[in-house]
Write a structure and sequence with these properties.
alpha+beta; Butyryl-CoA Dehydrogenase, subunit A, domain 3; 6 helices; 5 strands
Length: 253
């Protein structure tokens, strides 16, 4: 029974882990291709028509700034770890038409740059946990190892998602405050938060599978063996004392 439950929990952990990895990869690769669905995944869309040399509407991804054609991203050359920094040389390299909240600060640049290495680390631990998760189906140790790796992936994925939410929500508000309509990329945010939840559930399933059947195979057997040893020793001593009293004859003065 415990083996069947461990296998079921291990399979559930694998299912949630595979789903998280898929969503994370889709978000990471958004903007690298102009084909569906990658041309619909972005973090922030804003009106940049007032900025010289910028598209009328711009979308920020992990790799570039994309223009918009027929509601789809039209992306060019890719650059890994692309930041949100409208006045910087990585983006538009001008302050003209850029909301004042972006000027004179490195907050948006640094926060958005940390997202990329964190999601790469999260994906590494998630993929390793996916492979070790095969062991969680049949062994307790495999469940604990997979749960630990899933927990590490969850930590870095949570950091990435929180940084993404903070920096791009603030960026959207800066554009809206300057009468330049900005909105968040629904798919990217939905994918990242859903992946975070899936990693949590996967970690939970792995750990539950590892803990299942622990009492049946753990210390209870040793306790019974120890109890049996001492009880038998005690019973032997009691028997010997009774025998001595039985064979001892009373003496009369």
């Amino acid at each position: 029974m415990a083996l069947f439950g461990r296998a079921s929990l291990g399979l559930l952990g694998l299912f949630f882990m595979a789903g998280a990895i898929l969503l994370m990869f889709l978000t990471l690769l958004g903007g690298t291709s102009n084909h569906n669905p990658l041309n619909q995944i972005y973090f922030l869309q804003a009106d940049t028509s007032r900025i010289p040399g910028a598209p009328a509407t711009s979308r920020w991804t992990f790799w570039n700034i994309c223009s918009v054609k027929n509601g789809r991203s039209d992306c060019g050359e890719v650059h890994p770890d692309f930041p949100l920094d409208p006045p910087g040389k990585n983006n538009f390299d001008t302050t003209q038409g850029v909301p004042a909240g972006f000027i004179g600060t490195n907050h948006y640049y640094l926060t958005s740059r940390f997202m990329f290495p964190f999601i790469i680390i999260a994906l590494f631990f998630a993929v390793v946990s996916l492979f070790t998760g095969l062991l969680s189906i049949c062994t307790r140790l495999g469940g604990y190892i997979s749960g630990f790796l899933a927990w590490l992936a969850l930590c870095f994925q949570t950091l990435t998602t929180c940084l993404m939410t903070a920096v791009y929500v603030q960026g959207r508000d800066r554009f809206n405050a300057n009468n330049q309509r900005g909105r968040l990329g629904v798919k990217a945010f939905a994918f990242m938060w859903t992946a975070t939840v899936c990693l949590f559930l996967s970690c939970l399933m792995y750990c539950l599978g590892g803990a299942l059947g622990r009492k049946e195979t753990g210390y209870s057997g040793r306790k019974e063996r120890r109890r049996g040893f001492f009880s038998s020793a005690r019973s032997n001593s009691v028997k010997s004392q009774k025998q001595e009293r039985t064979y001892q004859e009373p003496s009369y003065a």
